[in-house]
């Protein structure tokens, strides 16, 4: 009898210790602001969470964490009204102070007169296409068949989490990710300006937007939560609204090339341009700085860039840089059930609709589009001097992105 009581007491003490351990190591956007928002494609209520109705399929550890988080939810049922009022005071037309963004220019024209898309049907179609091809055994591509648990932590660094509003955003470079990161910073209040959270996305300097310390990503979960990290990821993936934005894969490549190799970029010159110029243009004794190289007329050509992408040695040395890595490798759309799929081609309408669905449209507006956004009509000109065989190989390299996200096969580029 005494042993049984000691055993029960030990279990209770261990449970209390585990709870205290989680509380001690919880970060400032953890339980204090853990709002379990529902996915708009699968409505749920906080009451259902507390009742345990949504956790039947989860392992015991997940259920334990879910109940702990649900108890926190009862204590923190809404965003403080003062904070909401603070955010909504942002200017309608933010001041753009960054030199690069002044040069590129913004389109401040309103889009109210545009024919509104049937966004609900559009989302159903985009998600249906994605899920059908993920389930289609005859359509294969690398990493398709692996499970979420098989994805290494370092491949989850593009999943940004906002615990205050229950949102997960997978950012794709060259798909308006700078401004979506700004939106996530405003929503999560992860960055302060003189002690006050940023209210206006465009007030946030670019150097802070792309600073990895600014965002809570899944890749950081192991460092913060240890062995509970995967369980917490699964809970948040189940309960939070998950979204990403994509664009035509070939147009995204053109945009990446223009941004990183037509403009002076010291880091990309040293890491990528010098090897490309040596390998594919037979240049030797290249300048050590990008300004000297540009002054001497030494620039990577689009043909050099395509050769680099197709060269089998490239991936052997290191994975593709995120600016030209395939979306399926950045965001794992067959392992993560995204609730919203936006496209750059319909950015204004999609962004407005998403903010409305997230119920944050009165807190902020999505920053305006660039006037000189790379157009899909440019594909013919950019690929005119690229050999047909290379174009066909390039399509195979990015085919999964074309198919999963419903972009038509560029037949005019793949035939004589």
From TrEMBL:
Membrane topology listed for this record: Single-pass type II membrane protein
GO biological process per UniProt: carbohydrate biosynthetic process; proteoglycan biosynthetic process
First-listed, main subcellular location of the protein, grouped into a coarse class: Golgi
Record's keyword annotation contains Transcription: no
EC identifiers of the protein: 2.8.2.-
Transmembrane stretches, start-end: 7-26
Cellular compartment(s): Golgi apparatus membrane
Keywords in alphabetical order: Carbohydrate metabolism, Glycoprotein, Golgi apparatus, Membrane, Signal-anchor, Transferase, Transmembrane, Transmembrane helix
Example of a GO cellular component annotation carried by this entry: Golgi membrane
Regions annotated as coiled coil: none
Molecular function GO labels: sulfotransferase activity
InterPro entries: Carb_sulfotrans_8-10, Sulfotransferase
Keyword check for Acetylation: no
Family of the protein in this entry: Belongs to the sulfotransferase 2 family.
Alphabetized PANTHER family for the sequence: CARBOHYDRATE SULFOTRANSFERASE (PTHR12137), CARBOHYDRATE SULFOTRANSFERASE 12 (PTHR12137:SF4)
Protein name from the UniProt record: Carbohydrate sulfotransferase
Species whose genome carries this gene: Loxia curvirostra (Red crossbill)
The gene coding this protein: Chst12
